[in-house]
């Protein structure tokens, strides 16, 4: 396969996703973020991968999960930045938690390219990012936090997933009620008391710090 054909295929992969501005405490308006996404896509079409990389990185920091997937793809391919499988996996996992379907396959591929001892550090980085989002009052991060314990950890932690889904259910977040109940089915009844107390403590702390609480 020629380099140009390969670039075209990469461009096609990046252009599958439409711009999707996400709700949150952004310094830029959703319209401005959408415009920057369109500009990033245009850079890909022009094969200006340096500019595309910088644009998607900026958008990724604004929790645009499509941009996170595109950034991970660039880092996997080594376009606009030297190949960096660890950073690519970090963004692929965040994109997956944000609901981008293709990010899961990309994350699986990247895990196969990395030594096992590198994965835990990336998981911790994802966890820290989610914690920062929760502390900043980002409601979406609450469900992502629960999903992290089931989908990102090497061994699912249904207890901690239950804690975050329970908080989400108290805030009436979409899907939280069913996710909480599904997690509870994997727990022993005697463990639920401690987990419910933990969820209530975190919930109170969030309300006290003016984080959104429904």
SSE topology sketch:
Blueprint: H1 3-15, H2 30-45, H3 49-61, H4 65-77, H5 85-97, H6 102-113, H7 116-135, H8 140-151, H9 158-170, H10 176-184, H11 189-208
Helix pairs in contact: 2-3, 3-4, 4-5, 4-6, 5-6, 5-7, 7-8, 8-9, 9-10, 9-11
List the domain count as a whole number: 2
Main beta-sheet annotation: none
Radius of gyration: 19 Å
Return residue spans where pLDDT drops below 50 for at least 5 consecutive residues.
1-8, 21-25
Helix count, per DSSP? 11
Helix content: over 70%
The number of distinct β-strands equals 0
Distance between the termini: 53 Å
Determine the mean pLDDT: 89
Helix-strand sequence:
HHHHHHHHHHH
What is the beta-strand fraction? under 5%
Structural class by sheet pairing and helices: mainly alpha
Shape field: globular
Q: What would you note in describing this structure?
A:
The protein has 214 residues and is mainly alpha-helical. The protein folds into 2 domains: 3-114, no CATH class; 117-208. The chain is built from 11 helices and no strands. Helix 4 packs antiparallel against helix 5 (85-97). The relative contact order is 0.08. The model is unreliable at 1-8 and 21-25 (pLDDT under 50).
């Amino acid at each position: 396969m020629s380099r140009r054909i390969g670039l075209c295929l990469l461009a096609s992969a990046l252009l599958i996703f439409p711009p999707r501005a996400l709700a949150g405490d952004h310094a830029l308006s959703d319209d401005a973020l959408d415009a920057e996404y369109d500009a990033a896509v245009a850079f890909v079409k022009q094969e200006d991968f340096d500019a595309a990389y910088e644009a998607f990185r900026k958008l990724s920091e604004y929790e645009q999960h499509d941009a996170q997937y595109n950034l991970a793809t660039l880092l996997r391919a080594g376009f606009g930045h030297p190949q960096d499988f660890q950073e690519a996996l970090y963004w692929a996992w965040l994109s997956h938690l944000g609901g981008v379907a293709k990010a899961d396959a990309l994350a699986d591929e990247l895990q196969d390219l990395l030594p096992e001892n590198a994965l835990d550090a990336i998981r911790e980085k994802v966890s820290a990012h989610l914690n920062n989002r929760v502390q900043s009052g980002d409601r979406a991060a609450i469900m992502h936090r629960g999903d992290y314990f089931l989908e990102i950890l090497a061994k699912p932690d249904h207890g901690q997933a239950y804690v975050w889904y329970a908080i989400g259910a108290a805030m009436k977040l979409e899907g939280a009620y069913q996710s909480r109940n599904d997690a509870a089915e994997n727990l022993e009844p005697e463990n639920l008391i401690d987990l419910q107390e933990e969820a209530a403590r975190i919930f109170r702390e969030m309300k006290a710090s003016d984080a959104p609480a429904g």
